[in-house]
């Protein structure tokens, strides 16, 4: 089991680093994400950032219709289910849903203001 988890952690780490590269293609460079991943490893960085309050890269990605490449989406990837607790996965789900809902409300308010 430990060997499987170690391999998964390595794959997750690489996927977390790849988020930075994908974001850079749209002109967004999540430096804090990259720094945390390099210093702590992908899984530990994801846990730390998941609990950190404030504006997230998720909002920026959603502005570009790219929430599917977010850290939160990666945490929810079934391949990495063994790496995170049910509570961590629930928080990632909640953050994805909350950001999507607030973005939708913003659009609805903008449309209402124009009428």
UniProtKB/TrEMBL annotation:
It comes from the Bacteria. It comes from Pararhizobium capsulatum DSM 1112. This is Uncharacterized protein.
